[in-house]
Specification:
The chain has 854 residues and is an alpha+beta fold. 49% of the residues lie in helices and 17% in strands. The longest helix has 41 residues, at 633-673. The termini are far apart.
Length: 854
C-alpha cells in the first residue's frame, strides 16, 4: 500500500490525475475500470461444471446403479447397461442445469443489491454503483453511508467512521483531513484515511479514492480468509432432512421388493437391478435444486416489482408475515415533500407551487408579498437553506427538477428557491464551518456559518417540541398551538431557531440559548396505492402498523386516510426495537421498515428487515433482508403475496414428485405380492423418472399465484411442506396409479408380456401427466385455476407425451426399451384410464369445498 496518509491532498490528487473541483472525467473513469477492474471483492470461484457433474454421482444409490451397469456388461447385457448409464448421465446433466440456473439467479440478486455512492464526475454530483469507483474518484461520505473504497480524506465535518469490520474496535474513529507524516502506521491510526467496508456513524466528509477492489485493506484480508460457503434456507434444510428419511424408507421398501421377488423365484441380477432402479426413481433427489430455483426465481420476480431480496431465507419467511411495521414518510406517503405554509412572527404565510419545481408565490392573508422584503421570512428562508444537506438538481433537457438528498430537506431548499435564495450562493457568502448532524434522538440539526471576522451564526432546525425547549424568546404555548393546528391538517412541521456566537463557543453549547424564528409546514400526501394495500393486508390476516418520528396528529391524519389502526408516533429507534420485540413475543412474524443507522437493531431483530432503497442508509440496507427500490408500502404487500405463492408452488411440486414416487413403488410392490411378472423393467423405471420428474416439476414452480392467496391467514413459520391433506391426496393418487397400471398390465399380458409392460410403462408416464394438473392447486379445481394458465407446464407435458410416444413407436427405441406398438384402441384406453387420479382428486376437492361451504 502506498503511504497515502503521509501525502498532502494536492499531491494525492495530482498523482491520481484528479481535480478537487471536477473529480475525474468520464473518459478517465472508463480507463480506470479497464486498468483496475470493477470495485468489488472477488469471490472464491464456485464449483465448475465438471465438479457439479461429478457431484451428481456421489449418491450411494447411483454408485450402486453404475456398478450394476458394469456387471451387466460382463453378463452380456450391453445394450441395457449402456442405456441405463445414459439415463443416469442425462439425469445428472439435468441436475447440473438446475443447479447452474439457481446459481445464476442468486448471482443476479447479489448484483442488484450493490450499494450506490455519491461521486463527483466532470464537476457534477452523480449517484452510481459502488463497483464503478476507480482511484481518483472523489466520493462524499454521510451518516449511515458505507465507504465504497479505500480513500484519503479531503474534508471532514465531525466525521466519525465505524471501523469495527476492519479493526475489531467498536468505538467510531474521529477523522481528519491533514497529512500524517508518520510512516508504518497501523490501519487503526490512519486518521486521515477511510477504508472499504466501514461506515460513517456521524458527520459527513469528502475523500479521494486511492484503492479499489482486491487492492483495498479489506480486499487483502478477503484474499487470505476467503472460503466457499453455501448457506441453506430453513426450508431447504427441512427438505434435506425430509429427503434423507424418505430415502431410508424407500431403500427399506426396495429391499422388501427385492427379497420378495427372489422368494417368488425371480432372477437375482434383474431383481437387484429393478430394486436399485426403483430406489433411484423413488428418491426425489431433484427437490433441493428445484426448491433453490423456485426461491431464487421468485426473488428475481420480486426484484422486478421493486423488492430486492438480499437473503434468500426471506423469500419463504415473507409468506408467514403477520405484522408489518412501516415507517410513514416515503413508505406510506409519496416522499415528495412540498413546503406550503410558514409561520413567523405570529403570521401564517401560504406558498403556492407543488413538487420540486421552484416556482411559487407567497401570500399573507391572501395578499401577495415579496418574502425578501420581510426580515423574519427572509431569516427563516436563509436558515432553512443553510441548515441543509440537500441539493436541487435541474435537468436542462426536460426542464424537470429533482432533489439530491433527503426529501424533507429538499422541500426546504425548494421553498428558499421560490424566493430566489440558493444554498450554493448563500454558502459562498456564509461558509459552513461546523455542524451537528441530525440525530434521531435529538431530532435536531445545527450548522455554524462565518459571517465576519470572529463572528458566526448558528442555525438549528428540528422537531418543534424539542427545539422550543432550547429557545429563550418564544411564546411556547402559542407556537405549540399553531404547530398542532398545522399537524391536524396532515402537515409535517419543522421549526427553526438561531443565535449569533463568537468563535470560542464549544460544540456542545451550540444548541443552547437559541432564538426561535418560525415553523414550516410541509405536505407529503399518502400514496394512492397504499390504501388498497392496507385493505389487502387486513384481508390476509396481516396487521399493518405505522411507526413514525412525526407528530401524533400528522401520523393520525395519514393513518385515518389509509385505514391503519395501530399507530406509534414520536418514536425513537430504541422504542422501535421494543415495539418489534413486543410483537415477536406474542408469536407474530414481524416485518419492519427502516432507513437510518439507528434503525439497524430493529431491522436485524425483525423476522424480515426491510430497508429503504431511495432514502435508506447503507447501514440500514446491510442490516436488512430486503430492500425496497421504490420505498413503497404496497411493494411490501406485493412481496408478501409473492412469498406466499412461492411456498405454495414448492408445496405443489413436492406433492407431485412424492405422489408419482408412491405410485411407482406401490405398482412394483403389489405386482410382486400378487405373484405377477415385474410390470416394469429397470430401464423403463429410470426413463419414467427422467421424463416425468424433471420438467413438469420445474414447471410447477412457475405456476401463477392463486387469486385468493391473500384472503387466507398467514402461514405458521414452522408449518411443514407436507400437511395431512396432501398426505391423504398422495395415498389416493399413488393407489389409483398402481391400480390402473396393474390393470392395464394384466390386459396387455393376454397378448404378451412385452405388450403388458408397454401398457404399464406408458400408463405410469401418462398417469403422472394427468396428475400434474391436480397439483396446480391444493383446493381449487383445475378448471377454476385454468388448464392453460401455465404455458411452461403445458409445454413440459406435451414434450413428455411426445417422448413417450417415440419410445413406443420408434423401432430403434422399441429395441432399447423393450416396447411394442400399441393399437389405436389400446392407446385410447390408456389415455382414458390415465385420467383416473385427476378425476378422483377433482371429486375430493369438490367434497371439501362443499363441506367448507356448509
Amino acid at each position: 500500500m502506498k503511504k497515502w496518509h503521509t501525502k498532502e491532498i494536492k499531491s494525492v490528487l495530482s498523482e491520481l490525475g484528479s481535480s478537487l473541483e471536477k473529480g475525474l472525467s468520464e473518459e478517465q473513469s472508463r480507463s480506470g475500470l479497464i486498468k483496475f477492474g470493477p470495485n468489488e471483492l472477488k469471490e472464491k470461484r464456485g464449483r465448475g461444471i465438471i465438479m457439479m457433474l461429478l457431484d451428481q454421482f456421489k449418491e450411494f444409490i447411483v454408485l450402486i446403479l453404475i456398478a450394476a451397469c458394469v456387471i451387466s456388461i460382463f453378463l452380456g447385457e450391453i445394450t441395457d447397461a449402456m442405456v441405463i448409464l445414459l439415463i443416469v448421465v442425462l439425469n445428472a446433466v439435468l441436475g447440473v442445469v438446475q443447479e447452474e440456473r439457481a446459481n445464476k439467479a442468486i448471482a443476479a440478486l447479489k448484483r442488484m443489491a450493490t450499494p450506490k455512492v455519491m461521486v463527483k464526475r466532470d464537476g457534477e454530483l452523480k449517484k452510481m454503483s459502488q463497483k464503478d469507483l476507480v482511484p481518483g474518484d472523489i466520493i462524499f461520505l454521510e451518516t449511515g453511508g458505507y465507504v465504497g473504497a479505500d480513500a484519503r480524506i479531503i474534508e471532514s465535518i465531525n466525521l466519525k467512521i465505524n471501523e469495527s469490520s476492519l479493526t475489531g474496535e467498536s468505538t467510531p474513529v474521529d477523522k481528519i483531513s491533514e497529512a500524517i507524516h508518520t510512516e508504518g502506521l497501523p490501519v487503526a491510526d490512519m486518521k486521515n484515511m477511510v477504508f472499504m467496508g466501514t461506515f460513517a456513524s456521524y458527520g459527513r466528509g469528502e475523500a479521494v479514492v486511492v484503492a479499489t477492489g482486491m487492492d483495498t485493506q479489506i480486499g487483502k484480508i478477503a484474499e487470505m480468509v476467503q472460503e466457499d460457503r453455501e448457506v441453506k434456507t430453513p426450508l431447504q434444510q427441512r427438505l434435506e432432512v425430509f429427503g434423507k428419511w424418505l430415502g431410508l424408507a424407500t431403500l427399506f421398501i426396495c429391499v422388501i421388493v427385492f427379497v420378495t421377488a427372489l422368494i417368488e423365484g425371480g432372477d437375482l441380477f434383474e431383481d437387484f437391478l429393478t430394486a436399485v432402479s426403483l430406489a433411484v426413481a423413488a428418491i426425489p433427489e431433484g427437490l433441493p435444486a428445484v426448491t433453490t430455483i423456485s426461491l431464487a426465481l421468485g426473488a428475481y420476480r420480486m426484484s422486478k416489482k421493486g423488492a430486492i431480496i438480499r437473503k434468500l431465507p426471506a423469500v419463504e419467511t415473507l409468506g408467514s408475515v403477520s405484522v408489518i411495521c412501516s415507517d410513514k414518510t416515503g413508505t406510506l406517503t409519496q416522499n415528495k415533500m412540498s413546503a406550503n405554509v410558514v409561520y413567523v412572527s405570529g403570521r401564517t404565510i401560504d406558498i403556492t407551487g407543488v413538487g420540486y419545481d421552484p416556482t411559487g408565490e407567497f401570500y399573507d392573508a391572501k395578499t401577495k408579498i415579496d418574502p425578501l422584503d420581510d426580515a423574519a421570512i427572509n431569516n427563516l428562508l436563509f436558515g432553512m437553506a443553510l441548515c441543509n444537506d440537500a441539493y436541487l438538481e435541474h435537468f436542462k433537457e426536460t426542464g424537470a427538477y429533482d432533489v439530491i438528498g433527503d426529501p424533507t430537506e429538499g422541500a426546504l431548499i425548494v421553498l428558499a428557491a421560490k424566493a430566489g435564495i440558493t444554498r450554493l450562493k448563500l454558502e459562498s457568502d456564509l461558509p459552513r464551518v461546523n455542524e451537528l448532524p441530525f440525530d434521531s434522538r435529538r431530532k435536531l440539526m445545527s450548522t455554524v456559518h462565518r459571517t465576519g471576522e470572529g463572528k458566526y451564526i448558528v442555525y438549528t432546525k428540528g422537531a418543534p417540541e424539542q427545539l422550543l425547549e432550547l429557545c429563550s424568546n418564544a411564546d411556547k404555548q402559542k407556537i405549540l398551538a399553531e404547530n398542532e393546528r398545522l399537524t391536524t391538517q396532515g402537515l409535517r412541521t419543522l421549526g427553526l431557531a438561531y443565535k449569533e456566537i463568537q468563535n470560542d463557543v464549544k460544540t456542545d453549547e451550540l444548541e443552547k440559548g437559541l432564538i426561535f424564528i418560525g415553523l414550516v409546514g410541509m405536505i407529503d400526501q399518502a400514496r394512492p396505492e397504499v390504501k388498497d394495500a392496507v385493505r389487502l393486508c387486513k384481508e390476509a390476516g396481516i396487521t399493518p402498523v405505522m411507526i413514525t418520528g412525526d407528530h401524533k396528529l400528522t401520523a393520525d391524519a395519514i393513518a385515518r386516510e389509509l385505514g391503519i389502526e395501530n399507530v406509534y408516533a414520536r418514536v425513537s429507534p430504541e422504542q422501535k426495537l421494543s415495539i418489534v420485540e413486543e410483537y415477536k413475543s406474542k408469536g407474530h412474524i414481524v416485518a419492519v421498515t427502516g432507513d437510518g443507522v439507528n434503525d439497524a437493531p430493529a431491522l436485524k431483530r425483525a423476522d424480515i428487515g426491510i430497508a429503504m432503497g431511495i432514502t435508506g442508509t447503507d447501514v440500514a440496507k446491510e442490516a436488512s433482508d430486503m430492500v425496497l427500490a421504490d420505498d413503497n408500502f404496497a411493494t411490501i404487500v406485493a412481496a408478501v403475496e409473492e412469498g406466499r405463492g412461492i411456498f405454495e408452488n414448492i408445496r405443489k411440486f413436492v406433492w407431485y414428485l412424492l405422489s408419482a414416487n408412491v405410485g411407482e413403488i406401490l405398482t412394483m410392490f403389489f405386482a410382486i405380492i400378487m405373484r405377477m411378472p415385474l410390470p416394469l423393467l429397470p430401464i423403463q423405471i429410470l426413463w419414467v423418472n427422467l421424463v416425468t420428474d424433471g420438467l413438469p416439476a420445474l414447471a410447477l414452480s412457475a405456476e401463477p399465484i392463486e387469486k385468493d392467496i391473500m384472503s387466507l391467514p398467514p402461514r405458521k413459520k414452522e408449518e411443514g411442506i407436507i400437511n395431512k391433506n396432501i398426505i391423504f391426496s398422495m395415498l389416493i393418487v399413488g393407489a389409483s396409479m398402481a391400480a390402473v397400471t396393474l390393470f392395464l398390465f394384466t390386459i396387455g399380458m393376454k397378448d404378451s408380456v412385452a405388450k403388458g409392460r408397454t401398457l404399464a410403462f406408458s400408463a405410469l408416464a401418462m398417469l403422472e401427466m394427468y396428475h400434474v394438473f391436480n397439483c396446480k392447486s391444493e383446493k381449487l379445481s383445475v378448471f377454476k385455476t385454468g388448464i392453460f394458465s401455465n404455458i411452461y407446464l403445458i409445454l413440459s407435458v406435451a414434450l413428455t407425451v411426445i417422448l413417450q410416444l417415440l419410445v413406443i413407436y420408434n423401432p430403434m427405441l422399441q429395441k432399447i426399451f423393450r416396447t411394442v406398438p400399441l393399437s389405436g384402441a389400446e392407446l385410447m384406453l390408456l389415455f382414458a384410464l390415465s385420467s383416473t387420479p385427476l378425476i378422483l382428486i377433482e371429486i375430493k376437492k369438490a367434497f371439501e369445498r362443499s363441506f367448507a361451504a356448509r
